[in-house]
Hints:
- The complex is a heterotrimer.
- Chain A is mostly helical.
- Chain A has four domains: 2-61; 65-157, Zincin-like (2-Layer Sandwich), CATH 3.30.2010; 178-336, no CATH class; 345-372.
- Helix content of chain A is 58%, strand content 4%.
- Chain A has helices at 2-16, 25-60, 82-93, 104-108, 139-155, 162-166, 178-186, 190-198, 200-206, 216-219, 222-238, 247-254, 259-267, 283-295, 299-305, 311-319, 323-336, 347-364; strands at 65-70, 73-78, 110-113.
- In chain A, helix 1 (2-16) packs across helix 2, helix 9 packs across helix 17 and helix 12 (247-254) crosses helix 13 (259-267).
- The longest helix of chain A has 36 residues, at 25-60.
- Chain A starts with a helix and ends in an 8-residue tail after the last helix.
- Residues 1-22 and 115-135 of chain A have low confidence and may be disordered.
- By secondary structure, chain B is mostly helical.
- The termini of chain B are far apart.
- By secondary structure, chain C is α/β, with parallel strands linked by helices.
- Chain C contains ten helices and 14 strands.
- In chain C, a hairpin with a 3-residue loop joins strand 1 (3-14) and strand 2.
- In chain C, helix 4 packs antiparallel against helix 5 and helix 5 (133-146) runs parallel beside helix 6.
- The model of chain C has no long low-confidence stretch (mean pLDDT 85).
- The chains are: A mainly alpha, B mainly alpha, C alpha/beta.
- Chains in contact: A-B, A-C, B-C.
- Chains A and B meet through helix 7, helix 8, helix 11 and helix 18 of A and helix 2, helix 5, helix 7 and helix 8 of B.
Amino acid sequence: MAGRVASLLLVLLATATPLSARQSDEELRRKIDSLAPLIVEAEAAARAAVEAQQMEKMGEGAVPVDTFGVGPLLVVARREQRGLATAIFSEALESFGPWLDESRVIGDALVAFQWARELVPITLEDEHRRVESTFFRSRAEIVENARHAVGSMLTADLAGSPTAGWFAGPVAEPLEPSRVYRLLASLPAEINQRCLGEGGVACWTALGLDADDWQMDEWYSDDQRRDFAVQLARFFERIDRPIPLGERAVADCVDGGSIAACDQVLRQRGSGRTYAPLHRGDARPAMVYLAMQAGGDGAWARMLQMGEAAPGDALRYASGLSSEELGDLWHAWVLAQRPEVQAGLGVGSLFTLLWILAFAGLAMRSSRWRLG
Amino acid sequence: MYQPMLALHWKQVRFGLIPFVVAAFALPLLAVQGLGSSIAMMDADAYRRALTFNQGLLVFFPALAASIGCVLALSSWNWDHQQKHVYALSLPIARWRYAALKMGAGAVIALVPTIAFGIGCLAATASVELPAGLHAYPVQLTVRFFLATLMAYSILFALAAGTMRTTIGVFTAAFLLLLLSGPLNHFLVQMDPMREHVHVVEWVATRIVESPGPLQIFVGNWSLIDV
Amino acid sequence: MNSAIEITDLNWKAGKSFALKDVSLRVPVGSIYGFLGPNGSGKTSTIRTFMGMTKPNSGRISVLGMSVPDELPRILGRVGYVPERPHVYPALTVGEQVKYHASFFKLWDPGWANELMDRLDVDPDRKIARMSKGETGKLLLLLALSQRPDLLVLDEPTDGLDPVVRRDVLTAVLDYVGETGATVFISSHLVHELERICDWVGVMDHGELVAEMPMHRFKNGIKKIRLEDAPEAAAEAPFRILSRSRTNGRVASETWIVRGWEDPMRMYFNGVGATVRDVVDLDLEEGFVELLRASRPSNPQGR
């Protein structure tokens, strides 16, 4: 699927080329990004149609199927697997608040659920509706995947909105939340370190939720920005292409070390999205999920009302919290996700020592009767 | 008795250990290559690339510890096996004491590559400038490396200390588990299709590699630099 | 304690092809006990069993008055052992091997070890991996003697050694015995070698002890007798007939090999109408060969 989406994006990029003369890179990129959820939605819809068709065929082939509701979801499954499907999706839906009922996409979706083979347990593979596997998974994993699949379906509600362009991922608690902590702690952006220590507005800014278009000077220190600009200039030099950054600004930045000149160089490359510290992984989707949970009843409906609003405004309105409160909420959540640093000496090492002693004990039982 | 035993084992293994000592010193240094002298100055993508490279090399840490453990254990019993233990059995010492002395000697020799690894870790962490959110764990990782080496060493040592019959027994049991896991699994799935960790081999493997299993030290996070 | 080694009804089975069967032997304290037998007869297996290296299926073993395997560490601390094949560590030098070995023995005598090193011409700096078979043999003896053992167990100690080294080794053993009165248990298939030094002899064949006696009896008791008009049956003979064969095709002229012969037994032949032409002493080797021939099941006169 990723390959097909990539091909579609390439086609879109090709057709967008004439526009590039009139529009900035940033605008073009935002437009392309806003198309991605649409493509995902289209793909999902197509797949659902194929699967529904297959289910119908199964029905024709004397395999009875049932269509039934599990919370806001409409699920189709083989009759004898109805109980199983109900249990899996009920468990998956527990982590969402009442706001899930407000989703348009969820209300319209048909979720197919089936065994791959008679003796193979069901796995929700992929994000939306794919429900088969040829290898074994634990029940907990299947439920997790189902939860994520529902979270992914929610994004289709926001397709084309600035908020959807800002976060790309399921509206659910991440499968591996510790990755978000690692991302926050390990990236060198100055704002990350401030967020880690202070929370609040610093985290709001680190997540790129400030309305300002230019946030590089809030994210990175002068030295870091200067370094980026120099790297950029050297990149163009290396590939032997004319530098589209303004010769003078480059010279002032690289040779003169002027931070203002360096910022000018970076500004000419757009708002600095490339350098946005927390635009990857599940950092932003986690914030949306947390905001929805905080907003409770009606949160998703308010989110949908703010369709064309900036992501920060939409989140504030939907959750009913201020930027600082949302930043603190996310900060508290991310701190709780700090992974155990296993390089340290913990209980595991104690067990290892015990095992070593146990194997040493076995070795002591070495028999002397070994000849013959 | 212990000192001559230590000297004997050292003499038998020292040349074989040289590449491992070199690797133990060099690997931590290699793992921070690309992180540069100043991580704080790197942009997100460059940092990600470097860290990915770093993470990729991390699998070699436990692999190296396991290899050293194997080399020590096998070298420990090699000559005894070749001579069918005749010399060892003619010595006026209880068999368990002999095995204990031998094991103790190998455990002390394991400190040599561990020290090399520790020096490598300290040198590696001294060569990079970390952002505030990251920390280096050279001492902890070295302790972990030593424990992993001892773990592999003790397993192999215990196996090598046994008779051929014991070894065949252990491997036969493992083989039978693999052989019978298919039919057994088929049966279990029929009994309860949604059971946790349904596959028997997976269940056994999980018990072994997850805490408090014996191989848990080898899996998980081996990062020299971590949050 | 009258016996340095006492084995009673020892049975041990190795796979399908070989077994020690009801072996009972007794090595008097202070004796030099020659343990003879062809290759594969069970000499090494017997040694390994009373040294506590193999577990017998049945039987009782005591060495130096202590029970095997219950008191093995104490026993082995007083036993010097030279195995059939060299077992020392090739990675070590002679000096290192000696140091390693010494650390296990309370009675180790470093002065004596140095003296032996000089006497046997063993270089302490020489690496074992580079030593010849003769040099290794001398080192093994050095290790066994330097621990001042009460019992010296030598399993084919001179096998494959040149005559000079063989003489050095045996001389060192005899010197030690002369000095300390220790018991020596020495196995060999080289019969003539033991003839000169042993005062007791045990003979193994096919996992059985076929003879055990003082050397003088062994040497003197086996005779070759040439007879005329030999009787068909000799069930009443006061000696054991190991073999009999016809001579020159004449039915009445035969050569008998007998065991337990004493001169007054000539009377027996007078009684059965036979004439003794000749009584010839067999040397140990001939006696050994005849003994083995007689002990094997194919020989109708055998045991």
